[in-house]
């Protein structure tokens, strides 16, 4: 019987992971908050990155910029590196809730849809089940989400790992697992979808016949450390905007 984690006092993240808990990170779902008017773009918080295993980080992982399977793959490689160095760590993954197979090395920030037209790329809850399983099988025990995550995505992650964690999330009270509530649906063809293998094998269409399935990322050659990426204190002036548009023209014509 897997242990049930019910704490009387708050524990640190390392204490929880080292006790064998699978922690579900309820990500920032930044865009959801932005769209709802709760947050505005502002200065960036640089994310800590692990480049040398000998640095001895206690939790190693990646956050944001790429889709779940890509991020799990990255953490797997990091884990290999850490283990090769003869070290031990806990592993964390907090990917996007967007599919990004067409991204280059900078991730979704270079996609033309970034940041306000990414919705057609959103993972389904069933994709999230797959991701949670893949992350767990890779040995990752802090499994969360970043931009694009909605509460039902996090619930799907927690439901996939319910057996391992020993409990279902509280929000599972609101629906049936694997679409089982559809047993009550009035349409018989929808009732026929009240089963796991239907949703596990669905290949959802985007419904956008004029749209490509993949995009071409921008390639301005501007990356971390470049002077163009310094956070501005003031909003972009009209003059600056002209300069940026010129840069865009140049980047497009050289592409
Ligand atoms: Zn993010």
Automatic annotation (TrEMBL):
Keywords: Metal-binding, Methyltransferase, Transferase, Zinc. Binds 1 zinc ion per subunit. GO terms for cellular component: cytosol. Residues 1-161 form the Hcy-binding domain. Zn(2+) binds at residues 64, 146-147. Signal peptide: none annotated. Homotetramer. GO terms for biological process: L-methionine salvage; methylation. The lineage of its organism: Eukaryota, Metazoa, Chordata, Craniata, Vertebrata. Pathway: Amino-acid biosynthesis; L-methionine biosynthesis via de novo pathway; L-methionine from L-homocysteine (BhmT route): step 1/1. It comes from the Eukaryota. PROSITE patterns: HCY. Involved in the regulation of homocysteine metabolism. Its cofactor is Zn(2+). This is Betaine--homocysteine S-methyltransferase 1-like. It comes from Cyprinodon variegatus. One of its GO terms (molecular function) is zinc ion binding.
């Amino acid at each position: 019987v897997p242990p049930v984690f019910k704490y009387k006092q708050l524990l640190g993240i390392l204490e929880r992971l080292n006790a064998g808990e699978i922690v579900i990170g309820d990500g920032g779902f930044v865009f959801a908050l932005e769209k709802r008017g709760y947050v505005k773009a502002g200065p960036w918080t640089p994310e800590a990155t692990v480049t040398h295993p000998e640095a001895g980080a206690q939790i190693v992982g990646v956050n944001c910029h790429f889709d779940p399977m890509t991020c799990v793959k990255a953490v797997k490689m990091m884990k290999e590196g850490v283990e090769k160095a003869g070290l031990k760590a806990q592993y964390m993954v907090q990917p996007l809730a967007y599919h990004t197979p067409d991204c280059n090395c900078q991730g979704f920030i270079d996609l033309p849809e970034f940041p306000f037209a990414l919705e057609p790329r959103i993972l389904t809850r069933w994709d999230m089940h797959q991701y949670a399983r893949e992350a767990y099988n890779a040995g990752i025990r802090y499994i969360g989400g970043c931009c694009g995550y909605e509460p039902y995505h996090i619930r799907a992650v927690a439901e996939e790992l319910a057996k391992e964690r020993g409990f279902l999330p509280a929000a599972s009270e609101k629906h049936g697992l694997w679409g089982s509530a559809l047993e009550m649906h009035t349409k018989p063809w929808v009732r026929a979808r009240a089963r796991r293998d239907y949703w596990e094998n669905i290949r959802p269409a985007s419904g956008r016949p004029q749209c490509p399935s993949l995009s071409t990322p921008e390639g301005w050659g501007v990356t971390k450390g470049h002077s163009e990426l310094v956070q501005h204190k003031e909003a972009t002036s009209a003059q600056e905007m002209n300069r940026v548009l010129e840069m865009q023209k140049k980047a497009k014509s050289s592409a």
